[in-house]
Design a protein that fits this description.
This protein has six helices and eight strands; from the N terminus they run αββββαβαβαββαα. With 238 residues, it is α/β, with parallel strands linked by helices. The protein is globular.
């Protein structure tokens, strides 16, 4: 039957509707793909958190870490040298803190567990500072965002800021697929005692730092200290 004058045939109308829907769907797929690509290739921080393979000196917050493919972390015996800008724009070498035990917290402004850690890090900086333990935040993020965030949350411990250069520092520490936050603990001789991946809590921090003090007093070896920390952190989860 011929179509009524002034009206398109139903097959033609259906074809038009299908074409519009296909174009809309194609645009949605394109936008999603473009957004995913921008996230993967854009800012330096990586947003996927993966737990490392358990080894002495490496621990994870298993509740916060997804059951993703494990990332192997092989920490170096000593803290590798690296330099990053501080909040005033001065380039600081990590060796500026030579002779102090260090709490190096790698974080980013978009990371919720990182934000939750800040009060604890403030407390650790205040309580352990007199015992020559320096707390340093390593912000793997855009500088302007870090400075605004630090001012808003009144972060008063030392901050170093970087993007790819901060990721390079993480890689030098054996953390090639950064899972934020993660915290590196060293003794006063620059030995890397532990790396904790995930949100740090007070009991975990006290356990690790007590072992750091034992190392500083030469009451045990680095290998024994790492094993003691791994065993102690597992016991805290039981």
């Amino acid at each position: 039957m011929n179509a009524r004058r002034g009206h398109a045939p139903w097959p033609a109308v259906a074809a038009i509707v299908i074409g519009v829907l296909a174009a809309w769907a194609g645009e949605r797929v394109y936008v999603a793909h473009r957004t995913a690509g921008r996230d993967a290739a854009g800012a330096a921080p990586l947003r996927r958190r993966a737990p490392p393979t358990p080894v002495d000196g490496v621990a994870t917050d298993e509740e916060a870490a997804p059951t993703d493919e494990a990332a192997s972390i092989r920490i170096p015996e000593r803290l590798p040298p690296f330099s990053l800008s501080d909040r005033d724009g001065r380039v600081r070498s990590i060796t500026d803190w030579r002779g102090k035990s260090l709490i190096l917290n790698f974080w980013a402004t978009w990371c919720a567990p990182c934000r939750r850690e800040i009060p604890l890090l403030q407390t650790l900086a205040r309580e352990w500072g007199p015992r020559d333990v320096a707390t340093i935040g390593i912000a793997v993020d855009h500088r302007a965002e870090v400075l605004e965030f630090a001012a808003r949350f009144h972060i008063d411990y030392a901050l170093l800021i970087g993007e790819q250069d901060a990721l390079d520092a993480a890689t030098a520490l054996g953390v090639e697929s950064p899972a934020f936050p993660f915290t590196v603990f060293t003794d006063r001789d620059g030995e890397v005692v532990a790396i904790f991946v995930g949100e740090l809590h007070r009991a975990q921090a006290d356990l690790i730092l007590a072992t750091v003090l034992d190392l500083n007093a030469h009451r045990q070896t680095l290998t024994a200290a790492r094993h003691q920390i791994s065993s102690g952190l597992r016991a805290l989860k039981e």
